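Mods, move this if it's the wrong board.
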Amino acid sequence: MAYSKLKQHLTMKKHIVIASFIICALTACKNNSKSKSESTTSETLENRFEGKGYTFDYPKDWNITDDEPIDEGVHFVSVEKNGFDSSGLFTLVVFEYLVELDDVIKVNMEELQNNSFVETLTFESIVDSQFGNLDARSIGFKLSTMGIKHKGTIYAFEAKNQSFVIIRQGALEDTTKNAEGFDTIENSFSIK
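Not the wrong board. Structure tokens:
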């Protein structure tokens, strides 16, 4: 898919991601309702999310705050750490087809650059990396919004003829509090 067409195709997703980011940054909303794809695993006291061709676990103190198709063959999921003063945000976009990984990372970078709520923003370089046990491309970033410094990573990878884009971010002051949740999601992420 050409870069400009991919950028146009992802515009709706970007607005949802940015809206989720802003909501998280401004209010750190708490949503206790369960998604239809969500279940509780009693042995681990974690929740499990089952998507089309993938699953992941997340801690009890995190919630699915969005779970919806955003276009034909494109699905969006967001998971946030509970609490008014929490900042952990994990977003996932699944394409039921392959996209160019670096291009989709660049589209996310541009959306962050164009967000009027972002006061400062710096990016590292796009590099080969891992998300759990999956080979990925990724880029780290730092930003501040309303005077609060945040750190995050954008991952993109392919598996079983699908493409996955993940953004994980949180306030620098919450790095330790968010680490367990992010690690649980990443280490349990599985392609079916």
